[in-house]
Amino acid sequence: MGTFSRATGFPSAQLSAASLVGALLLTACGGNETAPDAGAAAPPSAPPDATSPPGSATPPSPPQSAATSRTVVSSDAPREPGLEPLPLMEALVYVTPQVVRQGGVFLLAVDAPQATAASVAYRGEFFSLLREGDRFFTLLPVDALMEPGTLPLTIALADADGRTALQMTANVTVEEVLWPTEVIEIDEAHQRLLDPDVIAEDRAVRQEVERAKSAQRHWRGFFRPPTDGFISSLFGTVRSYRPIVGKDYHTGLDFGGPLGTEIVAPNGGIVAWTGETERRGRGLILDHGGGVLTSYWHLSSVSIQPGVTVRRGDPLGRVGSSGFATGPHLHWEVLVHGVPVDPLPWLRELEVPDPSATFAIADAINAPPAPAGPDALRPTR
User: Fold this and answer.
1) How far apart, in whole angstroms, are the C-alpha atoms of residue 152 and residue 58?
2) Contact in structure between 124 and 46 (CB atoms under 8 Å)
3) How far apart are CA 359 and CA 381, in angstroms?
4) 20 φ, ψ (degrees, to nearest 5)
5) Full-model pTM
6) Distance, CA of 364 to CA of 170 (rounded, Å)
7) Are 175 and 102 a contacting pair, CB within 8 Å?
8) Which tens digits make up the pLDDT trace of 86-124?
9) Are 225 and 330 in contact (CB under 8 A)?
10) CA distance 23 to 17
């Protein structure tokens, strides 16, 4: 069970969170998130490295408590003329798990019935939280090569007028993983596919699609394997190539199998893209909603068109060896907000945090004291 913090705050036009307000206004209007403007003043409680690029080392921030801090604007603080104080906004903020392995994900969920929108600043980017009932949520990724240590995030909620009504910070701890290594022998015909220009072309084709953030969740529960066959290479494996001098890490799971083996949708989604790159061969990308996507590569054929809604088990294509492949297999990736994460936990029930989970108030950081006897605290949902 994860832990969470209880936080309250008064809305105020004087709250120094201009960049977060901008993100919340974009959320309320259905716009895309943007990184904070380089010239905008950062909020006092935001981590000093809030605009550092993804993949950079993130030093610990000085929180007010071990796991969370909050910004509370006093009701007698200076206000614009005629601005009346609004009712106190309460929120329960869940971060689970709070210790995350490299290549993993964690859930940020906010139960806040009075809020109209929520966003989070994380590693130099803003992300909108989806809403289901009174809960706002998103899954956030931890890159396979992220530096171990403390990782801060800043959460903000908007009131009915789109103003920042509450702002708080929390931390997660990134835990190191010792990834396996392997050496791959490549023939002369495939050596070109390690050329930097070929790699850049492949990334340019995929990048915009893989960072999509559709505003509805299409997936539920764990994901089924996308094809029959054995797992021939794990996520995170550090690869060296011969005779070319080069090294990278594996961004997905490989399923070995006969040429033409069927590939199916592992969960609900919408076909966001189908096509081909020189390096990855034929492929397709499914958008599962809220920044969660899966991609499928080295296919011999694709049997579905962009824009089609699929359900778990619907056919997508066939295993092949197109692109940079030494034999027939499926390269399958899970991406969260554009970052490849370990697909293996997504195939096992209860290993990826459930956005619909019930959390107990008694597990909260800074939770109110639990009453004795029959009035004991009950779950929030």
Assistant:
1) 8
2) no
3) 7
4) -70, -40
5) 0.74
6) 13
7) yes
8) 445 678 889 999 999 999 999 999 999 999 999 999 999
9) no
10) 10
Task: Tell me which residue has tokens 């080392």.
Answer: 57
pLDDT confidence band for 10 (50 / 70 / 90): very low
When pLDDT is averaged across residues 317-336 and rounded to a whole number, the result is 93
Give start and end residues of each alpha helix (H) in the chain.
Answer: 18-29, 188-191, 196-210
Q: What is the DSSP string of 313-342?
A: T-EEEEEB--SS-SSSEEEEEEEETTEEE-
Instruction: Give percent helix, percent strand, percent coil of the chain, each to the nearest 5.
Output: 10, 40, 50
In degrees, rounded to 5, the angle at the alpha carbon of residue 234 between the alpha carbons of residues 268 and 213 is 35
What is the amino acid identity at position 262?
E
3-state secondary structure of 353: coil
Phi, psi of 208 (to 5 degrees): -65, -40
Which ranges constitute the DSSP H helices of 136-283?
A: 188-191, 196-210
CA distance linking residue 26 with residue 118, whole number of Å: 11
10: Cβ contacts below 8 Å, ≥ 6 apart? 72, 73, 74, 75, 77, 85, 86, 88, 89, 165
